[in-house]
Structures are given as C-alpha cells and as structure tokens.
Amino acid sequence: MIDLHTHTNISDGTDSPAALIQKALAEKISVLAITDHDSTAGINEAIVTLLGSTSNMKLVPGAEISCQTENGTSVHILGLLFDLANTELQTVMANTRENRIGRMEKILARLRGAGIQIEMSDVLEQLADGATLGRPHLADALVKKGYFNSRDEVFSQILHNRSKYYVSHYSPKPHEAIALIKQAGGVAVIAHPLADRRGQVIDELDFQQLVSAGLDGIEVFHRDNNQSEQEQLIDFARKNQLAVTGSSDYHGNGKLNKLAEFVTAPEEWEKLEARANARRVIQR
C-alpha cells in the first residue's frame, strides 16, 4: 500500500511523526509520504523511528504547500522527494507559516465580534512544539471551550472557506510552488483539486497553467473527490501524461480519514519517483 499524503502534529494532525510511522508499519504500508502543511520539521523524527525498526517501508519526505490562484482559490500542492535543504523552498514555507499568525488574529477578532470568547493563547495551547498554526488548532480550542462537539462540526458551521469568519493568508501561486518544488529536485502533485465541499475549486485554465509549470501528478482518489470528479481527473491526467495518485490525507484523530483508505498504484508511484532528480526515499 502506498499512501502519499499524511499529516502529523507538526501541522494539523494529532499523531507525532514517530507515532505515525508506527501506525504505518502496523498497517503494512509499503510507501508513506509525510506531507505536513508548509513544513518538513517532522521528517527527521520519522526517519529516526523508521531506521530504528526492522521494516523495509519506504518514507517519502514532503510537504503540502498552501497556495492561492489569482482569483483567490485555495490550492494545495504536495511537494514530494525534494531536497529538504533547499533554501528557497524552505523560505517560502517559513513565510507562509509566519503569516498564519496574523491571519489567526483576524479570525479570532471576527469570532469575538460574534460573541465567541476565544484568545490566541487558547489556540496556541493546541499546538505541538514547532507545529504549523492552522484553523484546525482553532477548531480544537473551540471544542475544548465547549462551543462545539468536534473539529468537523466547527468546520462545517463556522470555519469553512465560505464562512464570514474566513480570512485568507499569504501563500505562493500554485505555479510558483510547483516551480520551487521542481527547482528543489522534487515532484509536484495537486491535492484534492475538485473537492467542491471545501469551497471554490480550481478551473480548467488554472489546471493548464499548472501543467505548463511542471505538474507531475493529480491526487484523484481521495474521500473529498466524488466518483464523477475522479473520472474527470483521470481523463485530464491521461491526456496530460500526469501520474494518478490516491492518498488518505490522514490527520490522526483530527479527521475521519483512515490511514491508507485510498492508495496509489505502484506503477503510478514509479512514474512520480522517476521524475525526481535524485533518489530521496528513506529506507533501512
């Protein structure tokens, strides 16, 4: 089983990198990518855990890079197999993480204006050390304070992209992120691109721009892409010689997604790995 999209508590997952590796080993996953939001800070811990095991599982270093198109549509690009020491890509991710603090303050101000008593300190209590701040941490804080029963409930009612409390944040354009990933020697896969339950979706013109920028694959099999959307994406991928991936988007207890609930076919993974400029998979 090959799962190319997972999160730890370095971003908005609930498992530590070590715990995620242990769960992946228990599930007999053969290839696992850790793709925290705008951060690779959990990769070293994952490597240490994997190398200390007796498994031949392959670990793929990566990150899910937050992007926005010119018209403000949120797009997530999975960067896989890039050089973790690449300064330019790491700087862009650091800038995105830093901007999330100002964004969070604005969201909190809007919530307080609606009578919800929530402070930045409440949100920061939900973060692991060095984690990337995001709306899921705010959701967890609201659950802890008794305003909602679950993270999913918070998102469905007040933190979705169409909400009056939503605030966008600095992030690169998708084609810029792809260019950075490619310059760092990695491969770029667009995550859940037609998941309309998340809000505004990417259009065909944007898609073609991403292909021109060097897009390597499309995350087709994902719980947020329905069957019709999957069929559209497969057709587009085949026409543009892109790899077709499937992934869990696992977040631990933070989402319903189960580890390896969707997976990538071995031949599609081989296509992706062949496009990186060096072999960066970690394995005992």
What do you see in this structure?
- The protein has helices spanning 17-26, 43-51, 87-113, 120-124, 135-144, 151-159, 174-183, 204-213, 227-239, 266-275; strands at 2-3, 31-34, 58-68, 74-80, 187-190, 217-221, 243-246.
- Strands 1-2-3-4-5-6-7 form a seven-stranded mixed β-sheet.
- Helices cover 40% and strands 13% of the residues.
- α1 (17-26) crosses α2 (43-51), α5 packs across α6 and α7 packs parallel to α8 (204-213).
- The chain is α/β, with parallel strands linked by helices.
- The longest helix has 27 residues, at 87-113.
- It is built from ten helices and seven strands.
- It has a single domain (2-94, 169-275), classed as Metal-dependent hydrolases (TIM Barrel).
- β3 and β4 (74-80) form a beta hairpin.
CATH-level-2 architecture = Alpha-Beta Barrel
**Secondary-structure content class:** alpha/beta
Rounded radius of gyration (Å): 18 Å
- CATH classification class: Alpha Beta
Biggest sheet, spatial arrangement of strands: 1-2-3-4-5-6-7
Number of strands: 7
- Beta percentage is 5-15%
How would you state the average pLDDT, rounded? 91
Question: What number of domains?
Answer: 1
Protein topology:
Layout: E1 2-3, H1 17-26, E2 31-34, H2 43-51, E3 58-68, E4 74-80, H3 87-113, H4 120-124, H5 135-144, H6 151-159, H7 174-183, E5 187-190, H8 204-213, E6 217-221, H9 227-239, E7 243-246, H10 266-275
Parallel strand pairs: 1-2, 2-3, 5-6, 6-7
Antiparallel strand pairs: 3-4, 4-5
Helix pairs in contact: 1-2, 5-6, 7-8
